[in-house]
Design a protein that fits this description.
Oligomer: heterotrimer
Shape of chain B: globular
Number of helices of chain B: 19
Chains: A alpha/beta, B alpha/beta, C alpha+beta
Structural class of chain A: alpha/beta
Distance between the termini of chain B: 57 Å
Shape of chain A: globular
Largest sheet of chain A: 7 strands, mixed
Strand content of chain B: 5-15%
């Protein structure tokens, strides 16, 4: 912590840390200095010159930009002098001489710093009689963003964001002097995953977002704070609607998580919520077809069928896409109404649930700010958890942490990595052993790992990787100096769902089934005996007839399970399937009863992110048609089955969670909404869950050497139903391809663009070849979660051959 | 007294060759500096010489060296981006005596513990760059540059870098950005280059002429150099005289003569029977001088400064009584508008606005209100129109554009008014 | 000066360049501690290959330097000598800054425009000439100054400007050199140049060693 110094601004004495910039100190003390280019999350650029103030020194007064001037003890500042006011007027007049003043048709009008500053600090009139600068306008610079160079005031916030924060400088200044403009390279659009942030921080209407353009006027907007439910990072957002329709999501600066930034998926996914394909009425299967039904009919069918099986013949999948309260209701429904232990929120596409919520010592996102070394052995963060990518990038690029990236191919973070280790999928265990030994090519990376604090971010690099490898990496890393572990999960509220007991071995509150069984029975009454099945086992049970019925809450195993063919066969074989969902997805389309439920922005509740940080999501718009909150629909079903979840509201469920879920004691909506929990409340790890059994490094975790090792890596814009239902995002889904290095392609007689057949035990797919020399010999990369690649399953090895008619 | 130009004056055909350079005492300072007196003594002599930077800012070079932060690697960058209108002295030094510069570079790098130096030459100077590169190649061959120089264990690489056409790269932080392969936009200061310069490493940036003096200083001692000329304008310096003058060219002078002597004796006076109307004492960024007030002002850094202008890069531009000063001011404003990097709002918008107002006046569309408007636009770039100029900008380019406007209005406002009126009657 | 080995992608990016230009690229990359510094000299080499700064050229430079193409464009467009449009064989640049202006540069420019038929800022006469006015070129003592492919001529009069255009039009050398043109079309110089050197430019790129197009004149 820097020493506090005393400075005087406009006669008011104040204390602030030495070296802080003047503009921030003034603002923190209630003195807003106008600015355009300065942004608290980026390095000062000092180029708009709007924030000039006078510093009064022994040699007189000096006009300085307050965004680049660091305070020192005894500094005296005048923000109101005649010279300052003249300079502010001058800058605004200069900015306006070429500005089109088309405020009535500008998205920014009404929330525009240029408008506001002109009113507050500007000259009354312009003396400019010449012709203004002209450009064609607006021009689309990507599928999502439009650029109006006439409105641009060249503050460089957008270009600096791309270079400094997101690391993909696809927009830049071009030309010089009065001709300077922001622009892309001619045939390289602004395809950043973070482009929407530039729209949000643009101080004028130069960058606008296609999904919001002309949708609303700012003064008509209603807004609530919430948390993005696109992934498990938990970015804080402002959800905004006009006439009960969502029109915009902006990032909110939560120091602990997103620091104001969002991925474009976080930002634009809201389009799916108002999709015409949303489920609005219950459906029941009649004569093989799903047809509309009343809630009463659908509940009756579902209740009668579910009650007709022994509890242990029924299983539940899902709950990871909703709130904690919904997950809790789902678990309580399965354990106390159906009375089954077969519950899983994951689809065997993640890590062991005990490891995910129980590994210690656990790293938080803010720990990245002080980490000396970061070991990243997980999926490509840019694709899987893009805002965590930004935080890790910041740690490496801005804060100087050593970053060691271990991955089968290049990742978004390679540019800022100090060490890159690439390996053929399947050989991870050997790579880990060699890294631990620190010999040869891994010596430098191993040496870096001796510089603590070390944070190991661990996860599955791809869906075909053995999840135990991540545990083995963690077991190594936690013995490193100040070693802490950040285990990764992907799906929106999967950690919350596990915390609510949606795993065969867990009960609500980060406690294991075996230790907390009796305690919970005291609250809930008799619970099913014995450990239940996990997702894969559930699917196998359904396929083999050991299980009869399945209840899915926001789950799509046919798309998301690593073995989609198994999932499809299981749903086909199941006697009875109930789904609670927003859309008919590949799995719910196979159900017998489908209940339309509400989701993000339609319900309130809490979610828990990868760190165990609980945050509040809020309601802004009504759900469409006859949709209900999931907890309410589950409660209705429970009542039909002669039981009762005791759920009168999400708030009531939250209170019960705080009572029966040990780790959630003290987590209240009041605190999250208004109290100390505004940045989220971290739920503890210790206090219930048993110690983890790590895979010993020399044990049975062995490498698979066969050609070709398959890297089945996730992509941001997968063909999940929400992406498909968001018109702005759907076109961004990548073309499915198979990636090989050049030498392997030559050996196989494949040229770029040729069709190759990729075969696994589960099936085969035909994909065009792309050369990727970041892959080692014998490694193959195929994008996961695209329709075209699904048949492949999660094989560790595949056979690649030239395609064609044969 | 000649330091820099003695060799080229005496050997008009081959002063740039290493044979001639060595035959006339070249690289003796290198031996003395590296083998006899050592790194600290070289720096001490340069400090004692009181030589002030010849690029335009006139900052004492020895003091600048003292700011070099200890982090390694450190770099030396020679600023040969000579672009200030009226200035052409570095071009002559590069073309006619590149080894003098190179010897200075080696001595400076040795004194400061620097192993890589860059000579940044403006893009429009291919011939000076060719001569310099050739000389660098010769110095490598002779072992003056490269590994283990003079068996001292000291290594130095010199890279000659050609610019791409941008006046602003003469500003040292813009030059460093350019050398890093970026847009030549001036950086925020602090940090200064001596702390975080090229690749964010400690960097000394000195002008060609400044470093060309180092061999003489090492050979003859800093005190000897300091004793030449007035105290605060020590040594000789190059002045470039151009415009309406009988004998244009570069002159190596001892400062202290009057402007009358410089223009009418050294420069041979005004040609074709015309009278002197005004002159610019230090490049087009400098406010003008006029005969009524400044002919007897001494040509020293301090005296010129006291009279509201600067010696800058030593470029003297002479304008006779036939000069259309409105057009001349416009021509200078146009230059800054063209060369503005575009970062800072007041410079990007203000210099262009100034140019466009002048365009209007010159095309007969001027209004009397334009005179105040011109001055007020200048005030938006350089508040108070003071000297030295206050700035609303990161670097002095914007304020430089105000110098011709303010000078025009200060001394020749009647000509502007007449111009506006005349065109109004005609139109 | 270090030896540089290109990756497969980097080699492919300049695969269409001549062996000479590829060699220049390697030499240039070896001169700088960080490869981003090679952007400007590599842009000149790309101009040797393409005649001007093309999108393909900027992409190749971006791959060699690890930048995005947008970043290379940002640099190329900042500097006035990286021309973005096809040029004539001879780029005739007339300095019209203050000292040249005072000594009649505008008349020289007008004469050259008139004689060549190519207006300021354009390329014409069947691809023979590009004519431009430029800001100060650092030869103020020899004003007015004209450059042909950045090779300088000092003390040019309107009549000499016309003669220069005729000379270039009626044949014109493959390599233009400042020495030859000064002798033919120049006047008073700012200073003595020393012994005559027959190096010059064969393209509208500064004729400087590894960066440009220096070659001995015939």
């Amino acid at each position: 912590m820097a020493d506090l110094v005393t400075i005087t601004i406009d006669g008011v004495e104040m204390q602030a840390p030495a070296g802080e910039v003047l503009i921030k100190v003034a603002e923190d003390n209630g003195n807003y200095i106008p600015r355009f280019c300065w942004h608290p999350r980026m390095k000062p650029a000092g180029l708009c010159r709007m924030c000039l103030v006078e510093v009064v020194g022994p040699r007189g007064r000096a006009l300085v930009p307050s965004c680049t001037t660091k305070i020192n003890d005894g500094m005296v500042v005048d923000t109101q002098s005649a010279v300052v006011k003249k300079a502010q007027e001058g800058v605004l007049e200069f900015l306006l001489i070429n500005h089109p003043l088309d405020c009535p048709v500008c998205d920014k009008g009404g929330e525009c710093p240029l408008q506001d500053h002109t009113v507050a600090y500007g000259p009354g009139e312009s003396r400019f009689v010449e012709e203004k600068r002209h450009y064609p306008k607006p021009i689309p610079i990507s599928e999502l963003v439009l650029l109006d160079r006439e409105r641009c005031i060249l503050c460089a916030r957008c270009t600096r964001f791309c270079e400094e924060i997101s690391g993909d400088p696809l927009i830049e200044f071009r030309d010089r002097g009065n001709a300077v403009q922001v622009i892309t390279f001619p045939d390289e659009p602004f395809t950043s995953y973070f482009s929407g942030n530039t729209v949000q921080i643009c101080p004028v209407g130069a960058l606008t977002a296609a999904p919001y353009r002309f949708k609303a006027r700012p003064w008509d907007l209603e807004a609530v704070e919430s948390v993005s439910m696109v992934d498990a990072f938990g970015s804080k957002v402002s959800v905004q609607s006009s006439q009960n329709t969502l029109v915009r999501i902006d990032g909110i600066d939560n120091e602990a998580t997103n620091q104001g930034w969002l991925s474009d998926k976080d930002r634009f996914i809201f389009e799916a919520i108002h999709s015409e394909h949303r489920l609005t009425v219950p459906l029941i299967r009649k004569d093989g077809e799903l047809v509309e039904a009343t809630w009463g009919e659908a509940l009756e069918v579902a209740a009668d069928k579910l009650a007709s099986y022994p509890g242990a013949a029924v299983a539940g999948l899902g709950g990871a896409n909703g709130t904690n309260e919904e997950a809790f209701a789902f678990g309580k429904f399965l354990r106390t109404i159906v009375v089954t232990p077969h519950i899983d929120a994951q689809l065997d596409d993640g890590l062991d649930p005990h490891f995910l919520v129980g590994v210690t010592p656990r790293a938080t996102v803010p720990d990245l700010e002080t980490a000396k070394t970061i070991l990243l052995w997980a999926g490509d963060l840019k694709e899987e958890l893009p805002v965590l990518y930004l935080r890790v990038r910041r740690a490496a690029a801005e804060l100087g942490a050593n970053l060691i990236v271990v991955h089968p191919r290049r990742t978004g973070l390679d540019d800022v990595a100090s060490h890159k280790i690439r390996y053929r999928p399947g050989t991870g265990p050997d790579v880990l052993r060699e890294l631990i030994a620190g010999d040869g090519e891994y010596a430098a990376a191993r040496a870096a790992l001796d510089e603590g604090p070390v944070i190991a971010i661990v996860g599955r690099t791809g869906l075909s990787e053995d999840p135990r490898l991540a545990e083995a990496v963690a077991a190594f890393a936690r013995d490193l100096p100040d070693g802490k572990i950040m285990p990764l999960a992907h799906r929106a509220n999967v950690i919350g769902a596990l915390d609510m007991g949606l795993a065969p071995t867990l009960l609500p509150g980060r406690v294991s089934e075996s230790t907390a069984h009796e305690t919970l029975e005291a609250e809930w009454g008799p619970l099913p005996e014995g450990l239940g099945r996990n997702a894969t086992s559930i699917l196998e049970g359904l396929r083999d007839g050991d299980l009869k019925a399945l209840v899915m809450v926001g789950s799509d195993p046919v798309r998301d399970h690593p073995e989609p063919t198994l999932a499809a066969a299981s749903l086909e074989a199941a006697d009875f399937v109930v789904a609670f969902d927003h859309f008919l997805n590949d799995s719910s389309a196979m159900a017998d009863v489908v209940f339309p439920v509400q989701g993000f922005a339609e319900v309130e509740g809490t979610v828990t992110n990868i760190e165990g940080r609980v945050q509040k999501v809020n309601r802004l718009v009504p759900g469409p048609g006859q949709t209900k909150p999931t907890w309410s629909a589950l409660d209705d079903l429970a009542r039909r089955m002669g039981g009762d979840l005791g759920a009168t509201s999400a708030a009531a469920l939250a209170k019960e969670i705080a009572t029966v879920a040990p780790a959630y004691h003290g987590v209240t909506w009041d605190s999250l909404d208004w109290g100390a929990g505004r940045e989220g409340m971290l739920v503890p790890v210790e206090g219930g869950i048993q110690h983890l059994e790590y895979i010993p490094v020399d044990g049975n975790l062995v490498s698979v050497e066969a050609h070709h090792g398959l890297h089945l890596g996730r992509v941001l814009y997968d063909d999940g139903v929400r992406t498909r239902m968001s018109p702005s995002l759907a076109p961004l889904m990548p073309t499915a391809q198979v990636f090989l290095n050049a030498a392997d392609a030559v050996e196989l007689g494949l040229n770029p663009g040729d069709d190759a057949v990729v075969r696994s035990e589960s099936g085969s797919v035909t994909l065009p070849v792309t050369i990727d020399n970041s892959l080692g010999s014998g490694a193959v990369y195929v994008q996961a979660n695209l329709a075209e690649t699904r048949e492949l399953g999660a094989a560790v090895t595949v056979v690649v051959a030239a395609g064609g008619d044969a | 007294m000649k330091i820099l130009t003695e060799r080229m004056d005496a050997h008009r055909t081959d002063s740039h060759t290493i044979e001639r350079y060595e035959a006339t005492g070249g690289y003796s300072a290198l031996r003395k500096g590296m083998l006899d007196i050592g790194a600290e003594a070289i720096a001490a002599e340069v400090k004692a010489s009181n030589i002030r930077g010849r690029g335009g800012a006139n900052f004492p070079a020895g003091v600048k060296w003292g700011f070099l932060a200890p982090a390694k690697p450190a770099y030396l960058v020679i600023n040969g981006d000579e672009s200030e209108p009226g200035t052409f002295k570095d071009r002559q030094l590069l073309e006619r005596d590149p080894h003098q510069l190179i010897e200075g570079v080696i001595l400076t790098a040795f004194a400061l513990g620097i192993n890589h130096a860059f000579i940044y030459i403006r893009g429009e100077y291919p011939k000076p760059a060719r001569r310099t590169q050739h000389a660098v190649d010769e110095a490598y061959q002779k072992g003056y540059v490269g590994k283990n120089i003079l068996d001292t264990g000291f290594d130095l690489d010199i890279t000659v870098h050609l610019g791409g056409g941008a006046y602003i790269c003469g500003e040292e932080s813009a030059l460093l950005n350019s050398l890093e392969g970026r847009r030549g936009e001036p950086r925020l200061k602090p940090p200064f280059p001596a702390v975080a310069g090229l690749y964010a490493k400690p960097t000394i940036v000195n002008n060609v002429e400044t470093i060309s003096n180092v061999p003489w200083i090492v050979n003859n001692g800093g005190i000897a150099y300091a004793s030449i000329g007035p105290d605060t304008s020590a040594g000789t310096r190059m002045v470039s005289i151009s415009g309406h003058i009988n004998k244009p060219g570069n002159y190596e002078i001892v400062m202290g003569m009057t402007w009358r002597e410089l223009i009418f004796e050294l420069g041979g006076g005004i040609p074709n029977g015309h009278e002197l109307k005004a002159w610019i004492p230090g490049g087009s960024s400098a406010p003008w001088f006029v005969p009524d007030e400044h002919l007897d002002t001494p040509v020293t850094i301090d005296d010129v400064g006291k009279h509201g202008s600067m010696l800058g890069s030593g470029a003297v531009i002479v304008m006779d009584d036939s000069t259309d000063l409105v057009a001349a001011a416009h021509r200078m404003v146009r230059f800054y508008s063209h060369e503005s990097c575009g970062q800072c709002t007041p410079c990007r918008e203000g210099t262009t606005w100034l140019e466009r107002i002048f365009n209007r006046i010159l095309s007969g569309q001027g209004r009397m209100a334009d005179i105040d408007l011109l001055l007020d636009v200048c005030d938006g770039i350089s508040p108070g129109l003071t000297w030295p100029p206050a700035m609303t900008t990161i670097c002095p380019l914007g304020p430089s554009a105000t110098a011709p406007v303010i000078s025009l209005m200060r001394y020749f406002r009647d000509e502007v008014e007449a111009r506006i009126n005349e065109e109004v009657t005609v139109g | 000066m270090k030896d540089v080995v290109l990756s497969a992608e980097e080699s492919a990016a300049i695969g269409s360049w001549t062996a000479e230009s590829q060699g220049l690229a390697l030499e240039i990359l070896g001169k700088y501690p960080k490869k981003r510094s090679a952007v400007m000299p590599l842009l000149y080499v790309s101009m040797i290959e393409n005649g001007y700064v093309t999108n393909e050229g900027m992409k190749a430079v971006s791959i060699l330097t690890g930048l995005t193409a947008a970043q290379v464009q940002a640099v190329a467009s900042f500097y006035s000598m990286y021309k973005r449009e096809e040029l004539g064989d001879y780029l005739v640049s007339v300095c019209t800054s203050i000292s040249c202006f005072l000594l009649g540069a505008d008349d020289v420019l007008a004469a050259i425009e008139d004689e060549s038929g190519v207006p300021d800022g354009e390329t014409g006469a069947a691809g023979k000439f590009s004519v431009e006015h430029v800001e100060c070129n650092g030869a103020c003592g020899g004003a007015p100054v004209v450059l042909v492919n950045y090779e300088m001529i000092e003390g040019v009069t309107p009549d000499k400007g016309r003669e220069l255009v005729k000379w270039l039009r009626d044949g014109g050398p493959d390599v233009v050199s400042t020495e030859e043109m000064q002798q033919l079309f120049g006047g008073e110089r700012a200073f003595d140049w020393g012994i005559k050197e027959l190096e010059g430019a064969f393209l509208p790129i500064p004729a400087f060693g590894p960066y440009g197009s220096a070659k001995g004149a015939s």
